[in-house]
Amino acid sequence: MKWECVQVYYLRKPKNTLNEPPLVPYKYPLIGHTYEIRDDCEGFLRRCREKYGDIYNIYQYGEVYTIAGKDCTHEFLANKHANFLDAIEMIFPLTKILGTDKPKNREASIKLIRDQVNPLIPKTIEKFQERAKIAFEKHLGLSEEPKTVYSLDKKIREIVSFSGAFLVFGEELSYDTELISSCAGFTNDIFEFFNIPRTLAFIHPWLHRQKVEWKIRVGENPAERNRAKLIKKLPKIVENRIKEMREQGDKYNPPFDFVQKILDDNVAGEKENIDYNLMAILIYSIIFVSIAGTSVKLSDAIIDYANETDYQKELQEEQEKIAQEYGADKFITIPQLEKMVKLQSFIKESIRYNEEFLGLPKVNLSSSPITLSNGYQIPPKRTVFCDLLSVKESEEYHGSDPTKFDPRRYLNKNSSTTLVSRTYLPFGLGRNACPGRFLAMTYVKILLSMIIRNYKVSFASGAKPKKTVFEGRFIPSSDGVIFEKR
Are strands 63-68 and 383-387 parallel, antiparallel or unpaired? Predict the structure, then answer.
């Protein structure tokens, strides 16, 4: 057995033949830096940055990865040969779970999100608020009695799922409890897949991937299970719409939702031959991307709002002023959101402050090494992770005391929450930047505005819940958060 382990180690041992960044020394073959990153990612990144500089290599789960800090991460992120989706796929078969592993499905999914999401914002904002009010009453309550919510991130997924169900499923299915439950549940299930222990990756990352894919093949794919529910219900809706489109011609008033966008653009085939499986794949891909990102950022902002007791009054006063100017019983509009400068600064600071330590992996898909301006080379098939800790804690980028939460950090700086730049990376950079960030941030601002107007928020324990850090990622706390009617 010892001989086999030695053979595996030398077969997997990194071979540095290019001008690569320095490899951080490690004690144990095969294991490398795996446990240091798992148990103390923040400290590990600080120590490596201090000793080896802005870019270096590590050995984790039997594979060499490059860690790029704030001074060079933007070069690799913007490189045309660096790909985000393929990097994720090498670690975790997300596209196979979602059904977008086929080139046609992936291209259709990207095109739909890139071209059709943003035009829906002004046309859906009122309907979203109507449904959000219902969701808040159900999940947070509007009675005088305070309500304690545990596992806030999961509860927020349920609220976002209901509020946006009309957008993804269409108005006809927007109150279907089975489908609405599937939105939040499906996202939770994928996170469970992502957290499967990567023990087999010590031998080879391919083995861990095969373990996950085996679970998919034996019927545990949450996306496939939920797609089947939708596929049973879509044909009737789609056929009725196609019939109305043909009968009414130019007078047809199309609904503003993804089902209609898929039909209009023939993304799932011609109207005479709709591929309902592909339509369901596209819809659930959008659900995962939108609900996961929106819910995490909103949950973080709610917890930060409850914690910043000194700033709460300023945010409340801003909301009251705008409500008086436009009418408290009116829907929040895009122009109103643009006037919420204190809310904008608060949300952006919350996003920056809660950014994970490591993220935005991209793999070099070129057959040649990528040479950076500092002379270091990234070999083909190498995955590079961004040291997001070095970006979010940069005084050069974010001013004084970047390790502290400052809700006024971006006040009067005309600094959008959807900005994509080397100084602010929550939505990526370059051609793989998140195309749905405008819709997501519009909904986050609306929902947080509604919470500030209607609720006092505090912590059941009296202290801010602490997140668990695992391999540079944050796992939300399940501690109680109290919502009390204002």
Answer: parallel
What is the distance between the alpha carbons of residues 232 and 279, in angstroms, rounded to a whole number?
12
Kindly tell me the sign of the dihedral angle through the C-alpha atoms of 137, 142, 143, 146. Answer: positive
C-alpha–C-alpha distance, residues 480 and 463, integer Å: 10
- Return the pLDDT at 11: 46
Residue 64 and residue 13 in contact, taking contact as beta carbons nearer than 8 Å: no
- The torsion region of residue 119 among left (phi > 0), alpha (psi -120 to 50) and beta comes to alpha
Predicted structure pTM score: 0.90
How far is it, in rounded angstroms, from Cα 135 to Cα 161? 9
Please report, as a single letter, which amino acid is at residue 212: V
**314: confidence class by pLDDT, cuts 50, 70, 90:** very high
Angle formed at CA 37 by CA 36 and CA 43, multiple of 5 degrees: 80
φ, ψ dihedrals at 170, nearest 5° = 95, 155
β-pair partners for 455: 485
405-422 average pLDDT score: 90
Mean pLDDT of 222-239: 90
Share of the chain above pLDDT 90, in %: 54
Q: How far apart are CA 480 and CA 461, in angstroms?
A: 7
Phi, then psi, of 201 in degrees rounded to 5: -70, -15
Q: Is the dihedral of CA 122, 123, 129, 132 positive or negative?
A: negative
Q: Which residue has the higher pLDDT, 332 or 105?
A: 332
Q: 10 falls in which pLDDT band (50, 70, 90)?
A: very low
Q: Which of 193-197, 307-311, 413-417 has the lowest mean pLDDT?
A: 193-197
Could you tell me if 179 and 201 are in contact, meaning their C-beta atoms sit under 8 angstroms apart?
Answer: no
| Residue at token pair 């391919």 | 206
Q: What is the mean pLDDT of the chain?
A: 88
How much is the pLDDT for 52?
96
What sign does the CA torsion over 259, 260, 261, 265 have? Answer: positive
Q: Are 394 and 73 in contact, with CB atoms under 8 Å apart?
A: no
Q: Concatenated DSSP letters for 66-129?
A: EEE-TTTHHHHHT-TTEEHHHHHHHHS-HHHHHT--SHHHHHHHHHHHHHHSGGGHHHHHHHHH
Q: Which of 267, 178, 168, 156 lies closest to 225, judged by CA?
A: 178
Structure tokens at 89: 């796929």
The average pLDDT across 413-438 equals: 86
Cβ burial 125-157 (10 Å sphere, 16+ → b, else e): bebbbebbeebbeeebbeeeeebebebbbbbbb
